[in-house]
Design a protein that fits this description.
The chain is mainly beta. The protein contains one helix and 13 strands, in the order E-E-E-E-E-E-E-E-H-E-E-E-E-E.
Length: 174
Amino acid sequence: IHESDVTVVFATEESLVYNGKEQFPEIASVTVRDGEDTYQLSPEDYVIGKNFAVRDDYTSVGEYSVYVKAVGNYSGILKSDYRYQITPAELSEDTATVTVDPIAFEDNKTSTAVEREIAESIVVHDDVNDRDLRSDEYDIWYMNEQTGEYTSSARASASIGVHQMRVYGVKNYD
């Protein structure tokens, strides 16, 4: 089978949303023209292959390339290059749960010590994909108690009381 005689229709959009797993586009149909005749290949007659020249991850946010290859009773490349995107998953109070252990405040505890305790106890859970985020997939922003704004440069408070922070997704999360 020659690529010029084949029409591959993909069922998925050109972008998929990050889910923590390898993702590939789904194929709706493969039609082959043989002279005046056309016929459909069944899913057992082709496979999707990774195009490692573009990327080798196929999990994280980014652009990917795959090819479709005939197998079984058929041979040949049916589609040599199909490109698609994996886009960031949403990280919000509707899609994630954040838990932090209570922190015991003691005399002379520094902001650095408080931040370390928070970093060691925080769990950010992606409720949509049912997975805990790695610490490199989110940033913690503390509220500046003078301005009331959340910034990446604000420090955790070492004083007794209720203090606020926000968690922002990075890399695979928006």
